[in-house]
Amino acid sequence: MRFVGVDERDDRTAAQAFDRSFGISYPSLSDPAGDIVLAFRGSVQSRLARSWLTAVGAGAAALTGDRGGALSLLGQARDHLDAADGKEAWMYEWDHAALAAYRGQCHLRLGQAGQAAAAFEAGMASLPRSCERRGAFLAIGLAEASLAGGAVDAAVALAGRALAVFAACGSVAGLRRVQGLRCLLADAGCRREAAELDQQIRDHLAATS
Predict the structure, then answer these.
(1) How far is the first Cα of the chain from the last one, in angstroms, to the nearest whole number?
(2) Which of 7, 16, 18, 167 has its CA at a distance of 20 to 30 angstroms from the CA of residue 30?
(3) Long-range contacts of 89-96 (CB under 8 A, 24+ apart)
(4) Distance of alpha carbon 93 from alpha carbon 32, whole angstroms
(5) Which residue(s) pair with 5 in the sheet?
(6) 3-state SS track over the chain
(7) Each residue's pLDDT tens digit, 147-191
(8) Which residue, 120, 175, 180, is CA-closest to 149?
(9) 6 bridge partner residues
(10) Long-range contacts of 203-207, Cβ-Cβ distance < 8 Å, separation of 24 or more
């Protein structure tokens, strides 16, 4: 049996940098459109796996602007998750909070900032306090939704709190997400806020180096 990674979020350069940083030796396939995971949907029997694959399909549909298809797939993903019989070791983090993150990203891709914010907030509320890293990823999603809705100060505040968690736990993927929000701020013409977030990133990196 061989293990193969499927990267549905990062671009190829970022994924290769992650592999080098953490010494990952197994091959990884880039799948930003969700084509690879969608190919497995009909053959997977696990309810949890089907839920995740269907959520990925929803993200792919949202990328094409297919609002009806994306929302229908999200509903199916929720139904599979609700029907799942307990946890599975290889999908231990796939739960309603994880699905909320996919829902939020789908709404963002469809230009629905309010619905995205509601999804991320629901995901954060469903997590126990001990899940700080996962909560920080949801907070970055909420920051993106806040920025899309015009709440710049709220976006920066959320990003700052998430950054503190990512820096404390050494999450490279988390730091990349904060940097991504910084780019969104700059693209939106919020140069002062982007510079403020830049400085926070430098301060946290200096403190943990």
Answers:
(1) 39
(2) 167
(3) 91/46, 91/48, 91/49, 91/52, 93/134, 94/48, 94/51, 94/52, 95/126, 96/123, 96/126
(4) 21
(5) 28
(6) CCCCEEECCCCHHHHHHHHHHHCCCCCEEECCCCHHHHHCHHHCCCHHHHHHHHHHHHHHHHHCCCHHHHHHHHHHHHHHHHHCCCCCHHHCCCCHHHHHHHHHHHHHHCCCHHHHHHHHHHHHHHCCCCCHHHHHHHHHHHHHHHHHCCCHHHHHHHHHHHHHHHHHHCCHHHHHHHHHHHHHHHHCCCHHHHHHHHHHHHHHHHHHC
(7) 999 999 999 999 999 999 999 998 989 999 999 999 999 999 999
(8) 120
(9) 29
(10) 204/163, 204/164, 204/166, 204/167, 205/167, 205/175, 207/167
CA distance 97 to 80: 14
Reference 54, options 31, 79, 29; nearest CA is: 79
CB 29 within 8 A of CB 65: no
Residue 171 backbone dihedrals phi, psi, to 5 degrees? -85, 105
90-137 residue pLDDT tens: 666 889 999 999 999 999 999 999 999 999 999 999 999 899 999 999
* φ and ψ at residue 144, rounded to 5 degrees: -65, -40
C-alpha closest to that of 59 among 96, 30, 99, 90: 99
